[in-house]
């Protein structure tokens, strides 16, 4: 328990410093997390007799997250960054298939479809989704916000709201489930209850709704859309990671955070809430602005 508490305190302090700093420091931190997350995924697959390709999947993760950092640093337009990411993803699928065919012809292990599919999912899960954490932090289609003690960039506020909503989803679900949980929610996570899921959804929804209205100044419909999306995708991300671990018969993805598990254990929900928050902001804020011009 002491290890868990110490890791939590250090992790929160590090997160505040890194997110506040932004720039290459933030991009480098996310890059490291993405690479460690891919390695955790690769190791889980290897323990079960599968192979996640290093060249296409592992290198692909490094490149696509690095692309997110470049987009952030050079302030590339969202439409261009989306086009670059889409193009790179399409190339990845081609190279992934070629690498899979080469390995199948060389080793003939009869697992080409499984290995290729796992490699593709690893690229999307730890690469494409992680890159959106950087892209969300770079979202600057809004005013800087002065909270008195410092001025926040618009994208930084967006990321903090996403993080707080994600944490609230998990925290509220835990406390409500511990106090009132009686009905199992999902067989994949037998310890989670339906009551806890409802509590997590409500807690997350209220938090995100209030924060977006107060600090982002968005219309009510947009705040509701953001709150509903984060409230839905936060537990979904957690369930998907539970399914992955159950499929590989693994309890924790790793031990990168002592007492808390691996990178995928800690960031499973954020990998889904960050992209959905970003695209709702992009669609509702940037596209109308571009059309008006």
Quick summary:
By secondary structure, this protein is mainly alpha-helical. Helices cover 78% and strands 4% of the residues.
Explain what you see.
With 293 residues, the protein is mainly α. It contains 10 helices and 4 strands; from the N terminus they run αααααββαββαααα. The strands form 2 sheets. The chain has a two-stranded antiparallel sheet with strand order 1-2. A two-stranded antiparallel ribbon has the order 3-4. The longest helix is centred in the first third of the chain and has 30 residues, at 78-107. The protein is globular. The mean pLDDT is 86.
Structural class: mainly alpha
* Number of discrete helical segments: 10
Q: What integer is the average pLDDT? A: 86
Quaternary structure: single chain
Distance between the termini: 56 Å
The total of beta strands comes to 4
C-alpha-based Rg, rounded: 20 Å
Q: Determine the fraction of residues in helical runs and give it as a percent range.
A: over 70%
What characterizes the major β-sheet?
Answer: 2 strands, antiparallel
Beta percentage is: under 5%
Biggest sheet strand order reads 1-2
Q: Enumerate the spans where pLDDT stays under 50 for 5 or more consecutive residues.
A: none
Strand and helix order: HHHHHEEHEEHHHH
| Shape type | globular
Keywords:
two-stranded antiparallel sheet; mainly alpha; 293 residues; 78% helix; single chain; 10 helices
